[in-house]
Amino acid sequence: MQVILNHPWLLHATMGTVVDMTVPTRQFALSETFRTIPDMNIETVRVAAHSPGSVMPFVKVTSSNLEKLDTALQRDDTTSGVTRLSKKDDCALYRIEWGRQVRKAIDIFVEADGSLLGAHGESDRWRLRMLFPDRTSVSTTYTNWRDNSIDPSVQRVNGVSDMIDYSGIDLSSCQHRTLVEAFETDYYDVPRGITLDGLANELDVSHQALSERLRRGHRNLIATTLCESPTVKTRPP
Length: 237
Prior knowledge:
The chain has 237 residues and is of the alpha+beta class. It folds into two domains: 21-159, no CATH class; 166-225, Arc Repressor Mutant, subunit A, CATH 1.10.10. It has eight helices and eight strands. It has an eight-stranded antiparallel β-sheet with strand order 4-5-3-2-6-7-1-8. Helix 6 (173-184) crosses helix 8 and helix 7 (196-203) crosses helix 8. The radius of gyration is 21 Å and the shape is globular. 31% of the residues are buried.
């Protein structure tokens, strides 16, 4: 049985859907390695991939204990082959051939015509950003993962047009317009070229509404550009 996701975030997705999901580490990849090296941080190196065997083969790993990393990765049940390509300070680059558990999870979204845009692993969860052709493909992946004992949590859904309009930064149109206006009127200069009240008058909004809009815009900018995997779930104006 297929369950169609009637989530309001999906309603504007017309030319493709970009989905941020989280998946528990124990249901996806490298949970044993994370138990051995709990401060490990891992992210995929972006490559174009359209088949299960070529999805997320390269990963960048940071840890204060790289000495144990090679052995931990090789012993992990979710890997079948591990090659370290480079190492510098607390960061290493690996090529990984994934085991059956990971390949099964990948097969599900690849068969739904999904593409992995990025993945970031932490001790308790993986954050995945995926591109799907339509919302039916999102629903198919979600349902099939649940049927295979994988419990994904949808964090955010955007249409491709949103990603293009704002260069992949998760801003509402109001937030985008407000931040651009603030920049162009020198609000961020030192000293400021315009006060908050002056900017509110320019935008014809209240002082409080402008302050909240700026804070939300700044939060989304930071989450998308400075943090590995944003978890913003709503985009109020």
